[in-house]
Design goal:
The protein is 59% helix and 14% strand. It is of the alpha+beta class. The protein has a domain at 143-157 and 164-254. Strands 1-2-3-4-5 form a five-stranded antiparallel β-sheet, covered by helices on one side. A hairpin with a 3-residue loop joins strand 2 and strand 3.
Length: 270
């Protein structure tokens, strides 16, 4: 019967230490547990070398893991920075466009301001002519309209007179007067007045105005009626006894004192 030759003690201890290293056990603890007291210096040196190799690989693995994490973080930061850079570029482009639009708006305002200044200067130059025409027109208006506009017409500067009113107020006065005259001219109006006839007789009458161009009058009893026209010195009234009935009828219709219908009244075209 064969018996295997017992291996030297140092050889068995070296192999046990090697297997412990490969199995990932703590080498120092295993070595202290298996290494004999009289270990071979060469073997001890090999063990230390393997420990250093293991530690080196562990450090390399640890550094690789740390580097991988750092790489991923750095990659995320680069991506985030890239997105922020794109956002900043978009904002810069937007601000540049806003700046361009603002410059265009300012230029437009300057252009409009220049045009407005020219228009204002032209308007101010025309105001005296408009006021002069109104001074001629106002005495030709129907007396009820003159009374209605008296406050404004009195603010018109007299010819050749200096005024303290600003051009804007003078312009507003002119526009308002013309607007009211135009409105009155498009309507039919009734009023009560005291008229002076060509023979000097004064009579209380009802007057009917077709705008500012033509008017009629009739006494309360209908015995006297006539036609009125705007003249250079105001309204001129001419008796028309033959038209008294129709004029009285027209006044009654407009006063709702007669059913609606037609009235034939004289017309004079100047």
């Amino acid at each position: 019967m064969k018996h295997s030759q017992p291996q030297p003690r140092t050889q068995r201890a070296g192999r046990a230490w090697l297997w412990a290293l490969l199995a990932g056990l703590p080498l120092a603890g295993f070595a202290s547990w298996t290494a004999p007291q009289d270990a071979d210096p060469a073997l001890e040196e090999a063990r230390l070398s393997l420990e250093q190799l293991y530690e080196t690989r562990r450090l390399i693995s640890q550094e690789r893991s740390t580097w991988q994490v750092a790489k991923e973080l750095l990659t995320d930061e680069i991506d985030l920075a890239g997105k922020e850079l794109e956002g900043l570029r978009a904002q810069i482009t937007e601000k540049q466009q806003e700046s361009t639009d603002a410059e265009a708006a300012v230029q437009e305002l300057l252009t409009n301001s220049e045009a407005s200044t020219l228009a204002t200067q032209e308007m101010e130059a025309r105001i005296p002519a408009w006021e002069a025409r109104l001074r001629v027109l106002i005495p030709r208006l129907p007396v009820p309209l003159q009374d209605e506009l008296r406050t404004l017409t009195q603010s018109l500067p007299k010819e050749g007179e200096e005024t303290t009113l600003s051009p804007s107020k003078r312009f507003i006065t002119v526009v308002f007067l013309l607007t009211q005259i135009n409105k009155y001219h498009g309507e039919v109006h009734l009023a009560s007045e005291t008229l002076t006839l060509p023979d000097g007789q004064q009579v209380n009458v009802s007057t009917l105005y077709l705008g500012v161009s033509q008017g009629y009058f009739v006494t309360q009893d209908g015995s006297m009626a006539g036609l009125g026209l705007s003249g250079e010195h105001g309204w001129e009234w001419t008796p028309k006894p033959e038209a008294a009935e129709e004029i009285a009828k027209a006044v009654a219709i407009l006063s709702n004192e007669h059913p609606a219908g037609y009235a034939t009244v004289p017309v004079r075209v100047q």
